[in-house]
Design goal:
With 755 residues, the chain is of the alpha/beta class. It contains 28 helices and 17 strands. It catalyses: Couples ATP hydrolysis with the unwinding of duplex DNA by translocating in the 3'-5' direction; ATP + H2O = ADP + phosphate + H(+).
């Protein structure tokens, strides 16, 4: 393997975990024997990328098409063929993980001397190297976390910010700096960009200006300053710019659709008047515009470089034809400039199961059935770590955390804290606990009797309001968490009308305790944004309703189209199994007022193509309205083509059933029942004892509909009992013996086993 040659602009970093290692794969891999061997195993388009070593090159690479493989083999081929000197190449990407992966692959290919860095890492090392020459003395200290200084700036401006507002204002300052917007111009820039600022724009501009003043006073810089200062030096000092250009003669930029205006300016200064540049990106995966990222530089590349070589990578090695077909159809409905440059992917994998579209009566049913399907996949041999549940906002995680815990499936949260471990949830729990203990002496609860109203009153002191805040960010996330607690209180009192605030606190403690499992490798729960760059064998896209996908605050056409691209990113994370689902109401028995996401129109079987009145045929997926079955045909059908499920029919009159409760019973509510009334009453009495012993509402043991179904079926063994909707494994283990004994006419002791 070629020894690394360290540039003076990038001195050896002994703390870099990738230095001196073989890509972190745990074993030494022999590099290809020569340049031609580097090209072995590449498809025709990847080979075209690898051999296009001169002039500007633009690689339009769709999801799963092997773009990292193509560009690393391109660099390695140039190095091994003697066309590129390792020390003259700078490969730039956006995350340390991606840069580390690129360095590892290059070492495996015998091109270990190539620098692979993030924009910030490359700029910081150059700034450190040239600062003594340009300014003299030591470079200002780098501010690792700017939040504290932003807080001080706000205080000096007599603006009070809570923790979440502080994070959002800090994000606004970062956006302003990467778009090269000075404090005085911030309000106008926000108005022009139609950006939802978390506070008054003039107020944020004032805080921004004070923040910059404090940095100057204390001789500190932040990460955005690293880019700004490097740009300033290269613009003002042509001798230094020439030195860098002599050192680096060839540039590769990955994820080019995510470049900000400031990063693009730095890249232009690195290049000078040369065109030895290769960029790689996909406009259809632009989902970070709120951070200043824009696909315009990718889309305008051929205009700026008329003689550029353009290569499209469309062979998808990640996903099955069924998943790829859905992804392509999703983008066919897109509009706007990015949509004009969409790539039509072609799957290179064998056929797999069709995507499953499922409509649920309510969110708990959606979460519970999703959890059961995941359990079935794991039982069929799919590793838990190869399964993901993806949602639009982090506040949606709680119901899936609970559902997976109920069926005994381990999970891990990516990009978010567990619901009951979030700071605002813990603070809200403490406030509710205090109010429950001293409610009679709490002025907040004066003249407030109803439990949900009490909860709203208490949480209003923690930031909950009847109307959600505008825009996205931490303030919105905090509100969503508190709103979830308000909804939980509403559901709780609906099931237990006599419940008190103390009862609700006990319920919250019970729920929190059930989720305090040690952190283990398990099913991934993640927002769609945090799933970018990852992939799994099975992906469940949940909560796909209007107002959530697209999100309510996506107002402009471009904001809506970015939401569509976000869903596209979610679809293309799946290798084999893909499930898309939505719920018509928030809670059981609620009004079915929700609609499936507009993005699914023309995709889900039976839906109308946008702009037409004709419903499409049931092709390219199966559509369910029940909560039964498993993705890809359940445990027995994993890896096979999914059989389409027909409508659920009443076993008495044959009518199609649409309500979740009726589907549990397999009959219409008003059809004659052969239920054993005596058995039903005995089951209800037993349930009341269990619920009291556990300190939970009755429905947490079994719902009325489940008890009715048991009383109608009168199961004689575990197999028959588990065939009843609502009897999950956890409840079978906990209550199954009692239920079967009651069905057999036996007496059951009131002191059932502890749980």
């Amino acid at each position: 393997m070629t020894a690394a040659t360290h540039s003076p602009l990038f001195p050896h970093d002994p703390q870099d975990p990738h230095e001196g290692r073989t890509a972190g794969y745990g074993q030494i891999v022999e590099p290809p024997r020569d340049a031609d061997a580097v090209l072995e195993g590449l498809d025709p388009e990847q080979r075209e990328v690898a051999t296009a070593l001169h002039g500007p090159v633009c690689v339009l690479a769709g999801a799963g098409t092997g773009k990292t493989r193509a560009i690393t083999h391109r660099i390695a081929y140039g190095v091994r063929a003697g066309i590129l000197q390792p020390g003259s190449v700078l490969a730039v990407t956006f995350t340390n993980r991606a840069a580390g992966e690129m360095r590892g692959r290059l070492r495996q290919l015998g091109a270990g001397g190539v620098q692979a860095r993030t924009f910030h890492s490359a700029a910081l090392r150059q700034l450190q190297f040239f600062w003594p020459k340009v300014v003299g003395g030591e470079m200002p200290r780098l501010l690792e976390r700017k939040v504290q200084l932003v807080a001080e700036a706000a205080a000096r401006c007599r603006v009070r910010l809570d923790r979440n507002e502080l994070r959002d204002v800090t994000g606004e300052i970062e956006w302003a700096k990467v778009t090269q917007t000075v404090p005085a111009d911030y309000p106008a820039a926000v108005a022009k960009s139609l950006r939802d600022a978390p506070r008054d724009a003039a107020e944020i501009g004032q805080i921004y200006g004070m923040y910059e003043q404090l940095k100057r006073d204390r001789s500190v810089i932040d990460f955005e300053d690293v880019l700004l200062l490097t740009v300033g030096i290269l613009q003002d000092r042509h001798d230094i710019a020439d030195q860098i250009r002599r050192q680096y003669q060839h540039f590769v930029v990955d994820e080019y659709q995510d470049v900000s205006p400031l990063q693009q300016r730095l890249l232009e200064l690195w290049l000078g008047d040369r065109e030895s540049l290769c960029v790689v990106g996909d406009a259809s995966q632009t989902i970070y515009s709120f951070t200043g990222a824009t696909p315009d530089h990718l889309l305008n590349f051929r205009t700026r470089h008329p003689g550029a070589t353009v290569v499209k990578l469309v062979r998808d090695y990640r996903s099955t034809p069924q998943v790829v077909h859905l992804a392509n159809r999703l983008l066919h409905q897109a509009s706007g400039r990015a949509a004009e440059h969409r790539l039509e992917l072609i799957s290179q994998r064998e056929a797999g199961p069709e995507p499953v579209y499922t409509e649920y009566a309510d969110e708990p049913a959606e979460a519970e059935t999703t959890a059961r399907r995941i359990r079935d996949l794991i039982a069929a041999g799919v590793p838990a770590g190869e399964i993901a549940v993806l949602y639009r906002i982090n506040a949606q995680s709680e119901v899936y955390e609970q559902a997976l815990a109920d069926v005994g499936v381990a999970y891990q949260l990516r990009g978010a804290e567990r619901f009951f471990e979030r700071k605002e949830v813990r603070e809200a729990g403490a406030a509710l606990r205090s109010a429950a203990r001293f409610g009679g002496n709490d002025a907040v609860l004066d003249d407030v009797v109803e439990l949900p109203s009490q909860v709203r009153a208490v949480l209003s002191t923690s930031g909950w309001t009847s109307e959600p805040p505008t825009g996205s960010g931490a303030v919105r996330d905090r509100w969503e968490s508190l709103a979830a607690l308000v909804r939980l209180a509403e559901d709780f009192v609906r099931a237990k009308p006599s419940a008190t605030l103390s009862d609700l606190v006990a319920e919250l403690d019970e729920r929190a305790a059930a989720q305090h499992a040690p952190t283990v490798q398990g099913v991934t729960l993640a927002s769609l944004h945090s799933a970018k760059g990852l992939e799994w064998d099975a992906v469940f896209l949940v909560g796909l309703t209007e107002g959530m996908m697209p999100i309510t605050y996506a107002k402009t056409d471009e904001q809506v189209e970015e939401e569509r691209r976000l869903l596209y990113v979610g679809v293309t994370r799946a290798r084999l199994h893909l499930s898309l689902s939505w719920a018509l109401s928030r809670s059981p028995g609620g009004r079915a007022s929700r609609r499936p996401s507009r993005f699914l129109n023309g995709l889900r079987p039976g839906s109308a193509v946008p702009g037409s009145r004709r419903a499409v045929a049931a092709r390219g997926g199966s559509f369910e309205r029940s909560d039964a079955g498993g993705i890809g045909g359940g445990a027995a059908g994993v890896g096979a083509r999914r059989k389409r499920r027909g409508p659920v029919l009443c076993r008495v009159c044959g009518k199609t059933l649409t309500e979740a409760g009726e589907m549990k019973l397999s009959r219409c509510e008003d059809c004659p029942s052969d239920m054993d009334e005596g058995l039903y009453e005995r089951l209800r009495d037993w349930r009341a004892v269990q619920a009291k012993r556990l300190g939970q509402p009755d429905y947490c043991v079994f719902t009325d509909k489940t008890l009715m179904a048991i009383a109608e079926a009168v199961p004689g063994n575990e197999a028959e009992l588990t065939g009843i909707a609502g009897v999950i494994r956890r409840k079978l283990d906990r209550f199954g013996a009692d239920v079967l004994a009651i069905c057999a006419g036996e007496e059951v002791a009131s002191g059932a086993q502890d749980v």
